[in-house]
Design brief:
190 residues, alpha+beta, six-stranded mixed beta sheet, 9 strands
């Protein structure tokens, strides 16, 4: 009887993890809408995001674990009036249950309109990613192509969190302060 109970408990752990992951995914999904500082959800303003490195919607291997493992260059425009800082999140939307966060950059100066290859804008901070490191963790598609999202958020505040802040804390703060958003989705091949 004890062995059956132990197996049941072990089987329940992945279910709890999936439930927690689903809750986190729901928070990620909702993060597209900000509160504009008033507590009621509002649709964020649309921003444009592009990169000369992405040709035909493909993430070059140079920016994956199969290449130089450096972040690609990105450009954006259209941050709305009232933007106090910007944030960037790179994630794998093909990951099961919860997306894998490869890079989370915040407190980017509101006048900044790009990130250069292999660089971080002056004064910007990096939060912990899904691997537990405050850096760009190059995506590593295996087995099948994956879709990677590069999302830039315009925020109505600076987050003032420390470098290496926990992923969930930074994500929650971004969700609460989002007033604009732009995204480019690319495919990474194994």
């Amino acid at each position: 009887m004890t062995a059956v109970r132990d197996r049941t408990r072990r089987a329940a752990r992945p279910l709890r993890a999936r439930a927690a992951g689903a809750a986190f995914l729901a928070a990620l999904t909702l993060a597209g809408c900000g509160t504009a500082g008033y507590g009621a959800s509002v649709a964020p303003s649309r921003m444009s995001v592009s990169s000369e490195a992405f040709v035909s919607g493909i993430l070059p291997q140079r920016y994956t674990c199969h290449g130089q493992k450096m972040n690609p260059p990105l450009n954006w425009s259209g941050a709305p009036a009232g933007t106090k800082s910007l944030a960037l999140i790179v994630d794998d939307s093909s990951a099961p249950i919860t997306p894998t966060i490869y890079w989370l950059v915040f407190d980017i100066n509101p006048g900044t309109t790009d990130i250069q290859e292999g660089a971080l804008p002056t004064g910007a901070r990096q939060a912990l990613n899904s691997a537990g490191a405050a850096t760009y963790d190059a995506p590593c598609p295996r087995g099948r192509p994956h879709s990677y999202r590069f999302t830039v958020y315009a925020l109505n505040t600076t987050l003032k969190l420390p470098k290496g802040a926990p992923l969930q804390a930074v994500w929650t703060a971004i969700a609460a302060a989002t007033i604009g958003r732009g995204r480019i989705v690319v495919t990474g091949n194994p």
